[in-house]
Amino acid sequence: TGAQKSSGAAGAKRKPAKSDEGPAKGAAKKAKPASASKKSKSAKEEAAGDAQAVVYLECQEGNACKFYEISVDGTTVNMRHGRIGCPGVTTSKSFPSEDKARAFAAKQEAQKIKGGYSAADPDAAVAAEKKAAKPQSKKSSKVKGNWPKNGKGTIAQYWAAVESELARRAPDDLESLPPPATEEEIALVRKTFPKVPEDVIESLRIHNGAYGAFHRDSLYDVKLLMREWGWKKDWRDDTIKFTHCPGVQNAWFHKGWIPFIYGDGTGDCLVIDTAPANGGVCGQILDWGHEEPENHFVVCKSLREWFQGMLDSGAVGKPDDEDTDDSDGSD
Fold first, then answer.
1. pLDDT, tens digit, for every residue of 51-85?
2. Is 115 helix (H, G, I), strand (E, B) or coil?
3. What pLDDT sits at residue 132?
4. How far is 3 from 9, CA to CA, in rounded Å?
5. 141-195: per-residue pLDDT in tens?
6. Cα–Cα distance between 86 and 109 in angstroms, integer?
7. Separation CA 115–CA 64 (nearest Å)
């Protein structure tokens, strides 16, 4: 028994020597996978960071059919925007630090989402472009309603349809529609814009603007449109390389553009073009953005088409997916 204890004691003395060597080696072996795992995780995080640095948004409400992409590459922010299905225009902006670049990108994203954009899949956009080249089926997602089609109704008919939809979907918005513009206000518009389309005058004679009637879009009243035009009419920058759509004047803002429809609260708006370039149509509606001055494009050919687009897409009053949403947030 004593021998066994002695032997055991001796063994116990030897084991620490082995254990000092063994665990050290084991630790070294384990340390490598741990280090590799850490590096692998870091690589994944970096990849995730790269993916998060690219944001692709689309806006397809009413007549809108545009995209906005923003990405951060170090201290540079790259922005690409235009009509869905087109390459768009790319611009870049540099910042003194990556934090400031990312902060700018986040601010831009938030502004676009507030203005009606939502996250989308850029690959799906490419697929949609290819699909658009193929013959389409007769099925349509347009809202069926009792209003003139193909932009062939009168402004009075479209306003009657808008009022009918508001009565059904958003009675409060119907009650808040403003009265007609005064003749003095009409005269001011005619004097400022000699080629103003009669559709604009007819609309103002029915309602002098309309706040919130078209989901996220509103119509300027005469006072607001004159104020917006007054401080934008002299904007110019000779360094800008314009890439506007055909038929649009190469200008940051033109005196012949009437600010008429707004939506995102940032100063961006839709303008009615009374001074189109060759190939354009007087009365065409342009998408105008103060941070994207080099690429204004035609949204639709007339105010009538715009009204019909809003009605067809269900953008009058509350959007379709909010019609039955009466939740008070207590769930």
1. 446 899 887 755 456 778 889 988 988 887 766 65
2. coil
3. 42
4. 9
5. 445 567 777 777 899 999 999 999 999 888 888 888 999 999 999 999 999 999 9
6. 20
7. 11
230-261, pLDDT tens digit by residue? 988 887 665 666 655 678 888 888 899 999 98
Residue 327 pLDDT exceeds 70: no
Average pLDDT of the segment spanning 299-307: 91
The encoded tokens of residue 184 equal 């003095």
| Token code pair at residue 233 | 């009419």
Contact 277, 250 (CB under 8 A): yes
Q: Which two tokens stand for residue 131?
A: 């699909």
Long-range pairs, 177-183, Cβ under 8 A, ≥24 = 177/207, 177/210, 177/213, 178/207, 178/208, 178/209, 178/210, 178/211, 178/221, 179/207, 179/208, 180/204, 180/205, 180/206, 180/207, 180/208, 181/205, 181/208, 181/221, 181/222, 182/208
Residue 297, beta-bridge partner list: 287
Tokens (6 digits) for 226: 């004159």
- 3-state SS string over 220-246? CCHHHHHHHHHHHCCCCCCCCCCCCCC
Helix or strand or coil: residue 307?
Answer: helix
C-alpha 128/C-alpha 84 separation (Å) is 9
pTM of the model: 0.57
* Cα 203 to Cα 199: distance, rounded to the nearest angstrom: 6
> Letter for the amino acid at 101?
A
Q: Which residue has the higher pLDDT, 41 or 203?
A: 203
How far is the C-alpha of 195 from the C-alpha of 272, rounded, in Å?
Answer: 11
Cβ-based neighbours of 156, under 8 Å, separated by 6 or more: 202, 206
What b/e sequence results for 25-40 when a residue is b if at least 16 CB atoms lie within 10 Å of its CB, and e otherwise?
Answer: eeeeeeeeeeeeeeee
